Amino acid sequence: MNRIILIGNGFDLAHGMSTSYNHFINDYWEKIIEGVRNNINGNITTRDSILENDEIKISNIPSHWNIGRWNDECTTFEGLIDFLKHLNLKLEFKNIFLEILTRKKSIQNWVDIEKEYYYLLKESYKDENCSYKIDVLNNDFERIKQLLEDYLKGIENNFLNNFSNSENSLKLKSSIGSKIYSEFKLKDFTESSINKKAEIEFQNIQNDIKGLKDGMIEEAELNEESRRLIYRIGKEKPQKEIRKLLVSDYAYNFFNLMPEEILFLNFNYTFTEKLYLHHNEFDYFDSKKAPKKQIIHIHGTTDKHDGNNVIFGFGDEIDDDYKSIENLNDNIYLENIKSIKYLETDNYKRLLEFLNSGDYQIFIFGHSCGISDRTLLNTLFEHKHCCSVKPFYHKKADGTDNYSDIVRNITRNFNSKSVLRDKVVNKEYCEPLS
């Protein structure tokens, strides 16, 4: 059996990387405010000057700023607007999508941006009088994507090389590494996959049991693994006893339950999974059972030289309106649909090859499982070889956690709710990511 480590933004956040949407948008406005602050300090001296970039414009800047209400601690968009209002100045948005993101307090995560884009896309095709046309929306969205790439490069440049060797950092790495390279726990799996594994293990020792019963072989002739297992389960109802043993907490003492191959399926644009590629760093891991490893950055990366461009858009072809959008016969509406972008590399093909190669369990590390990835997640979760979907939740300082939030999102990626209930691991068997 194999394992997929499904990596989302929460994985980077757990490692102390400032890669959330709020980090990004706050950094953007801090830089704008710094530009205004520099002008206050005398860089602009001509009346009716303009402070402008590709996204915003502040016109009619006076030759001498009245900084009576300027506060050095003012680092937010709201604080900037308040200051400009004091001077009878107005900030004009050239990028409408940035304005929507900035003003909407409901936008908290990257998935919310993608959902907002898709909502505006649908508005533009449903309402012919819509003022925000699809070509302008796409241009604005492309600029946000460029800003995001630039921001993430700055964050990541020093991270992997400077990941702290402090006690807390090493403890975090050990905790996550132990999960990645852990044995399978069959109680997490679907009933059919447990039965399948039990049958495989029975077939492995069936001849030995028969030989012992018939007196054709002696116990001393068996290898140590078979002898221990047969002694534990007995000879009368071996299949039933093997199944019971497989779902016990000490199954690893009798069976090889290590993954044959581990796929790091990274939905981020960063390379944080590199911290966990060398299994020999984890002294609890049996190197003789080392799994194969591969990495797929399904949404691209910040590396301009790897031919894996950033994919940022929407991926819910299950949505009721999607077919109508396809039927418009206008390709501009499909410019940022993820499933189409996947065809630009072999990432999706490699993923399908992995899914079809054998049974697998999914570990969810910091992915919200929101609907902007619903088409791909549905493929992963409802595939006939998927035996288990195990969320590792975030435990907050106040003792609460987001397990229920993740599971609610997961439900939207299943068409069959009976399959959902069989595959998704209940909270009692789950644990925090770190």
How would you summarize what this structure contains?
Helices cover 44% and strands 10% of the residues.
Write the layout of secondary structure elements.
Blueprint: E1 2-7, H1 9-14, H2 21-43, E2 49-52, E3 56-61, H3 77-86, E4 91-93, H4 96-103, H5 110-126, H6 134-156, H7 159-162, H8 167-180, H9 191-214, H10 224-233, H11 238-246, E5 261-266, E6 292-297, H12 322-326, H13 338-341, H14 347-356, E7 360-365, H15 374-381, E8 386-392, H16 403-411, H17 417-423
Identify the overall geometry. Answer: elongated
Q: Strand order of the main beta sheet, please?
A: 6-5-1-7-8
Mean pLDDT reading: 90
Largest sheet: number of strands, sense, barrel closure: 5 strands, parallel
Query: Any idea what the radius of gyration is?
Result: 27 Å
- Spatial gap, N to C terminus: 25 Å
Structural class: alpha/beta
Binned, the helix content reads 40-55%
Order of helices and strands: EHHEEHEHHHHHHHHEEHHHEHEHH
Percent range for β-strand residues: 5-15%
Strands, total number: 8
